[in-house]
Amino acid sequence: MKIKIAYVLLFITSLYVVWTQFYHLGELPIVQWDESRLAVNAAEMQQSQQYLVSTYEHQPDLYNTKPPLMIWFQVCSIQCFGLNEWAIRLPSALAGVLTIFLVGFMAYRSSNNLYTACLAMLILTTSYGFIQLHCSITGDYDALLALFLLLSFFQCQKFLNTTKRMHLYYFTFFVSLSILTKSAAALIFFPIYMAYFFYASRVKYWKQLAVCLILSLIPFFLFLFLREQAASGYLKAMWENDMGGRFINGKDGHEGAWYYYIQQLFEFRYSWFIWLLPAAILYGLLKDIKELNSISICILVYLFIVSIAGTKLEWYDVPVLPLIALLIALFFVNVIKHTNRYVFKFGLVAILALCLMEGLYAKINFTTNRAGMRLDKSIYTISEKIRNYKGSENLYYYSGTYDAWNYFYTFTNKKIQRVQFDKVQTGTTILTTNSFSDSLQLKFYTLTLDSNSHDKTIRITGIK
């Protein structure tokens, strides 16, 4: 009977995970900055069928210089489901669900308990940072990166537990995929693996580890060579955007104190479960339990590395969020298992219930109403209008020199066109944000047709 209840709970938990991830996945317009840049890269790649060099405005993109693995997945999704928001986000969403299921599987293997698997999955699902903007509900790199890094960590664990070479081969494969996903962000895990081997007293395997890490770089270096040959200037731009320039100095004003990631974990990246993390890490370091040892070391070393980096962005902690969920779940189960005091057990169960209730309520509210989403919707008033445009005439828009989140919709609807000043003719109707309407009025005589607090529709009546 207990086994049947456990399987029913696992089934319900799995349905909840899938619902939370996919409900209204395509509801939001393409989000400003990274998702929109990737969306345009994928749209242009699907259109041109040139798969080596990602482009923006049909020119080699030297701003988004990550390897194109995620863009390739998005192109495949577009081929299957058409060019829309849902297709752009599908690879991230699938990576998010697979990561949550993998966390549950790892929890089950460590505890041989399905309830632990359900708990680990729920902790990650109800966190505020994983099924969220710039992770698994938008077409960004980070959910896919988290999946490949967790898979490589899992294979690393299995190798140290069994010393079977097969796990080293899988480890090398997944590390290679993580590098092809987000280059420098994946390389952060190299010293983490070395620290893990050292802490586990497996220094004698460092040579094999080094060989695997070197081999995992070969596909990345091959891509770099081919990409530079196809369009020169890529290596220099990639170094400045993704490698040394971003790590040593704050990029584009994204700076913060050394405790930036620790602070945001406790303030808005996780549910109440995060307050158990210090105790879980201490427990994991002191107890002779391999799984807890390895997870605690990885969390600490990762947070240390990203904390000393010059550039700080809130989504840089995404790869560590699954490990936090796994550690807290295993911590709970081990503490309850090894205590005979019923009062203490009751207290732990009460804490668990409160944390789950808070997390589930907040996440359901987020999923159904997008409550608590850190998104300035005023930016997307034009996006909403042009993505839903059904008219028979061309609709022109103007929203500044960089507008990837609007530019994407010129690929989904050929009636949507960006304004180019040298081609504007008398009688043209233009949708523009209020902040840029003055730019048009400096050169043209205009008539306001419609206006609100964020944008206006004007007609060009003459040229000054």
Shape: globular
Topology pattern, helix = H, strand = E:
HHEEHHHHHHHHHHHHHHHHEHHEEHEE
Largest sheet: 5 strands, mixed
Q: Ranges with pLDDT <50 over ≥5 residues?
A: none
Count the domains. 2
| Mean of residue pLDDT values | 90
* Tally of individual helices: 21
Count of beta strands:
7
Rg from alpha-carbon coordinates:
24 Å
Structural class: alpha/beta
Largest sheet: spatial strand order? 4-3-5-7-6
Tell me the fraction of residues in β-strands, as a range: 5-15%
Walkthrough of the structure:
- The protein has two domains: 2-369, no CATH class; 377-463.
- Helix 7 packs parallel to helix 10.
- The longest helix has 28 residues, at 342-369.
- The chain has 464 residues and is an alpha/beta fold.
- Helix content is 62%, strand content 7%.
- It contains 21 helices and seven strands.
- The strands form two sheets. Strands 4-3-5-7-6 form a five-stranded mixed β-sheet. The chain has a two-stranded antiparallel sheet with strand order 1-2.
- It is globular and about 85 Å long.
Short note summarizing the structure:
With 464 residues, the chain is of the alpha/beta class. The chain has helices at residues 2-22, 34-48, 69-81, 85-111, 114-125, 142-162, 165-182, 184-187, 189-199, 206-230, 234-242, 244-248, 260-269, 277-286, 290-308, 321-337, 342-369, 381-387, 404-407, 409-412, 434-441; strands spanning 55-56, 59-60, 395-398, 416-418, 429-433, 444-451, 455-463. It folds into two domains: 2-369, no CATH class; 377-463.
